[in-house]
Each structure stands twice: as structure tokens, then as C-alpha cells.
């Protein structure tokens, strides 16, 4: 019975990470990059998946062995570092959550014909409802799993409807015509950047699945999360490629909706509404839960009233969207900062992985350390480049 319960939590953590990554930005990024790069975008996806695996295996294992949240590990290494990381992730999570709330509104607008603001309020009420129940963690796990499976099924259907050139996609995934490093950094930042890196690891920690004995299960959960996010991205790429390969231009105002409509007509457009809503509301839940997990250790009152703080986080995100709208500058800067948060947090985890005062007698795999260092160097370089580019565009 305990083993069955653990698998439910492990799958929940995997889907929480995956669905946190699959938000409105995820849908847009994938379709836009497919239009720009064509079948060669498959190579970008392949590289990003490999980098994602390196990040998640490092982070989840060290958190589990240390039995501490990422910010507490950071504070143990250098007093104040955890507070800085917490602030960056909290602000970034809030900025992205405004976009996620907006995504729920757009999805319900397509489905129900209501305004995005009304849709956002309705979606926020649903998300808040999850954290009002007694067993919020268990309900959150089931919610992420159910909507995650729905996302996969709908996107697979649209991918087959668009009839993509599979042979060309397979060849150019390994032998691309062009390599776009900005696309790679955007995808990695979007799937394991900011709060997303720690969504699953912190969920397992809260559920008590920790220690060296649990590492095989934790590795499986981390890889499952990467697989879920990657399957959705691959089939969304194929759906978009099927349209782009015919020479049809996507609507620049809403590229993913354009793919769904062109692939499957009006039914496809309605399916887009379901996909957008499901992707956005699971990201709302994941962003709120994980962002608040970074400030739980600040004060016992936050720890004791965690669900109410999460509800406040969702409420503030919704209020800003409904009253002000999407703060484009904030979202762009948050996206650029996401690329810088990952190397800082991953570097911290890698140093901690070799500190006996944190991990005891545990021996972190050397290959994972080397892999992690390479990811840190690449993300630092590309994250800095992206931030400078975004700042130049804005100012």
C-alpha cells in the first residue's frame, strides 16, 4: 500500500514539474520556433531534452539526500544566498503567473465566449479551490496528472491531423540545417528555469520521499517529468511543422491557436481552448506552490499557513492581470532573468553535492557533476546574451 502511495506521489511530482513547464509561453515558443527553423527545430528539442535531464537529475537528487529545500541548502553554503535566490524565484514566479492567469482567460474565451478577464477570475477560483481542501497535496497531484494526460492526448490528435513530414523531421533532428542557440536557451529556461527546476523536488520533499534509499524512485520521477514535457513539445512541434511545411503562415497574434485551427478546423480551435486552459491552469498551480515553497522557511507563520499564502499568491496574480493586464516588460525581463537564475541555482546545488556537512557520506556521480558544470557554463553565457538583448529591445 505504501509503495502504491509513493508511486502516486512520484507521478504527481513528475506531472507537477512537466505541467508547470507547459504554460502559455511553452505553446507559443514551440510554434514560433517551428515556423522560424522548420524541421531543424527538432535538433533544438533534442539538445534541450538532454540538458533538462542533466539539470533535473542533479537538483532532485541533492535535494532528496540533503533533505532540505534549495534555499536552505544555499543558505547553508553561504548565508543570505538562499534569501536572494528565493526573492528572484518569487518575483519571477509572480511575473510568469500573471501570464499563466491570462492564458486561462484566453482558453476559456475560446471555449465559452466570455471575456479573458472573466475567464481568468473563474480559473483562479478553481485553482484556489484546490488549496482549500484538507489534502491539497494529493488533490494537486491528481489534478496535474489528469490535465497532463489530457494535454498529451489532444496535442497528439492535432499532430496527426496536420500530417507532418516525419522523415524530414527525423533526419533534421540529428542533422539540422541551422542551429539556434537562443532557441535552445529559451527552451531550457522554459522547461527547467526559475521555479520549474524545483517543482518536483520540493513536492517529493514535502511528501517525505527523501534519502539515499529513495534515489532510484526519485530518478524515475525526474525522468518521467522530462518525458511528459518532451512528449508534449515533440507532438506540438510536429503539429506546427505539418502546417509550416505546406507554406502556410501562422497568425502572428496567436501562433498556437492558428496551428490548431489550420490542422483540425473549428474543432481544432475549440481543442486549442482546452489545451490553453489546461496548460495555463496547471502552470498557475505549479508556479504558486513552488514559489511559496521558497519562502516557507522564512517564518513559522508562512509554514503553518502555506495554503493561504499560495491562495494569496494566486489572488495577487489574478488581480494584476484583471486590473492592469499583462505587464509585457515585466514578463520579458522575467524571461531573461530565468536564464540567469538556472545557472546560479544549479551551481549552488553542484557545490552542495560535494559538501559533507550537507549530504553526509553520499557520493554524487562524477558524470552528473561534469554534466551540470557544462550546463551552468552554457546557460550563463546564453542567459547573459539573452538578458542584454532583451534590455536593448526594451530600453
TrEMBL record:
Recorded hits in InterPro entries, A to Z, give: NRAMP_fam (IPR001046)
What keywords are assigned to this protein? Membrane, Transmembrane, Transmembrane helix
Q: Does the keyword field hold Thylakoid?
A: no
Indicate yes or no for the key word Chloroplast. Answer: no
Q: Where in the cell is it found?
A: Membrane
| Primary localization class, coarse | membrane
Question: Where exactly are the transmembrane stretches of this chain?
Answer: 7-27, 39-65, 77-98, 110-131, 143-161, 181-201, 222-249, 269-295, 307-324, 330-353, 365-388
GO biological process assignments: iron ion transmembrane transport
Record GO cellular component, one term: plasma membrane
This protein's membrane topology, according to the annotation, is: Multi-pass membrane protein
GO MF, one example: cadmium ion transmembrane transporter activity
Lineage, top-rank taxon, reads: Bacteria
Q: Which PANTHER family does the protein's record reference?
A: SOLUTE CARRIER PROTEIN FAMILY 11 MEMBER, TRANSPORTER PROTEIN
Q: Could you identify this protein by its name?
A: Putative membrane protein YcsG
Q: Which gene encodes it?
A: ycsG
